Amino acid sequence: MTDKQHRIQALIYSIVTYFQNHGVGMCGVDLTLDRLKGIDLSDEKLIDLPPQETRHDEVLKNAIAGIVAPELRDIKIHLAAAKDDLIWREDNAQFYPPGADLGEGYAKCNLHTLLIGPAACGYQHPGFRLGIFMMGPRTLYRDHNHDAPELYLNLSKRSGWRFGTPDWQDYPAGSFIWNAAGRPHAIRVYEQPFLSVFVWLENVNSLCNVIPSDDWAEVEQDLAKQPN
Ligand SMILES: [Fe+2]
After folding, report:
1. Which residues have a Cβ under 8 Å from the Cβ of 189 and sit 6 or more positions away?
2. CA proximity to 60, closest of 187, 158, 195, 156
3. Residue 185 C-alpha to ligand 1 middle, in angstroms?
4. Which residues surround ligand 1, an ion (CB under 5 A)?
5. Number of independent structural domains in the chain
6. Could you read off the pLDDT tens digit of each residue along the chain, which spans 228 residues?
7. Which pLDDT score, from 0 to 100, does residue 93 have?
8. 17 C-alpha to ligand 1 centroid (Å)
């Protein structure tokens, strides 16, 4: 096993350990841990692909520096160590039906890496995805849903979420968000970038449907006005 593979594996293990220590008993976390039990995360199964850097590296560095919750320390250390080993990608049209309107903010700065999943840089799996997701500051990830049940672990200090209603609620670092299949969700990112672990448990090739809401422009204007 190379040093690079070792760093990627250590990152994955730190995430699984967080799930085990902080999420047992929560629906989405238990389901995720059940799925992970059936996936071979041994040294032999680790793959070795060339890393792919990102034009958003400065934002990513800031996002990692913004992980300050003590219980997320291990994930932070291993993510910082493995950052340049990973394959970073931006969401593109393949995840959405033609004509989906995600907005300029999202297109400007979204980023993810897949640690387990199809074409992942840790362990290949055709029916499961686990990775890291980032969005730039002052971004609205517009309301959407998908057939894939989804778990988020929020790494950044504060992020706004709503689930099919006009009202927003802030979630702290270390919180879990469980989106059962089809549940609408939207995220608003304040003055610091948003960073999370995400898991898609099944239907991993399903498309994201954007769910129009008439307050998007207003929300985006409010985010632009947030103080630094
Ligand atoms: Fe989602």
Report:
1. 135, 136, 137, 138, 139, 140, 141, 159, 160, 223
2. 195
3. 7
4. 150
5. 1
6. 899 999 999 999 999 999 999 999 999 999 999 999 999 999 999 999 999 999 999 999 999 999 999 999 999 999 999 999 999 999 876 677 777 788 888 889 999 999 999 999 999 999 999 999 999 999 999 999 999 999 999 999 999 999 999 999 999 999 999 999 999 999 999 999 999 999 999 999 999 999 999 999 999 999 988 776
7. 62
8. 23
The whole-angstrom separation of Cα 138 and Cα 219 is 10
- Ligand 1: distance of its center to the CA of 69 in Å? 24
Q: What is the DSSP letter of 182?
A: T
**Separation of 43 CA from ligand 1 center, angstroms?**
30
Query: Cα of 67 to ligand 1 centre, how many Å?
Result: 21
The pLDDT of residue 95: 76
Scored b (16 or more CB within 10 A) or e, 86-102 reads bbbbebeeeebeeeeeb
Which CATH number fits the domain that encloses residue 32? 2.60.120.10
CA of 23 to the centre of ligand 1 (A): 19
Residue 128 belongs to domain spanning: 3-225
Contact 162, 215 (CB under 8 A): no
Tell me the CA–centroid distance for residue 110 and ligand 1, in Å: 13
